[in-house]
Specification:
CATH architecture: 3-Layer(aba) Sandwich
Helix content: 10-25%
CATH topology: Trna Endonuclease, Chain: A, domain 1
Length: about 170
């Protein structure tokens, strides 16, 4: 995911981005880690879509056969990086505070108002490995208090919820 790491560094002051360990990736739903200027470690969950949409898919079931909970419930990442990668270029992307997003989702309680979408993971021969269940949440419904970077407005100060390009730089 070098393209995602470079995009993230261009939007958010983060250093020494490295892939998470295989155990962290599998058990904690963390894709990579980086450091803030003051040295604090930040963990990231990355979601990539290859077509442009005006919604964000929130995974509620990671494997429909097993009934495994989705990343909205199990990810231990600090930050969700959600990008639309088309022709090897990030067209649009969000940086979202995972704790705020999870709290909003948990407190919302009306999951069924968002349409269900299923994703598929196939092996190299095209055989279905598993399906995921997701809810398509319009971008406008994601609470501004959870958004760190918005593709239209830039960096957003989570305290004032105002656009603040100096907040992280």
């Amino acid at each position: 995911m070098p393209i995602v790491k470079e995009w993230l560094k261009s939007k958010f002051q983060i250093y020494n981005i490295q892939d998470a360990s295989p155990i962290e990736q599998k058990e904690d739903d963390i894709d990579f880690k980086g450091h803030k200027p003051e040295g604090d470690v930040v963990t990231f969950e990355v979601k990539i879509r290859h077509k442009l949409y005006d919604d964000i898919l929130i995974e509620t079931v990671s494997n429909t056969t097993k009934g495994s909970p989705g990343w909205i419930y199990v990810s231990k990442a600090d930050v969700l990086v959600y990008v639309f990668l088309i022709d090897n270029k990030i067209i649009k992307g969000f940086i979202i505070d995972m704790k705020s997003l999870k709290n909003w989702w948990k407190n919302k309680g009306r999951y069924n108002e968002y349409p269900v979408r299923y994703g598929k993971t196939l092996d190299s021969k095209g055989k279905l490995l598993y399906k995921t269940q997701n809810h398509a949440v319009p971008e406008r419904d994601i609470p501004s208090s959870a958004i760190i970077y918005h593709p239209t407005y830039g960096l957003i100060n989570p305290i004032t919820e105002e656009v603040d390009p100096s907040y992280f730089r």
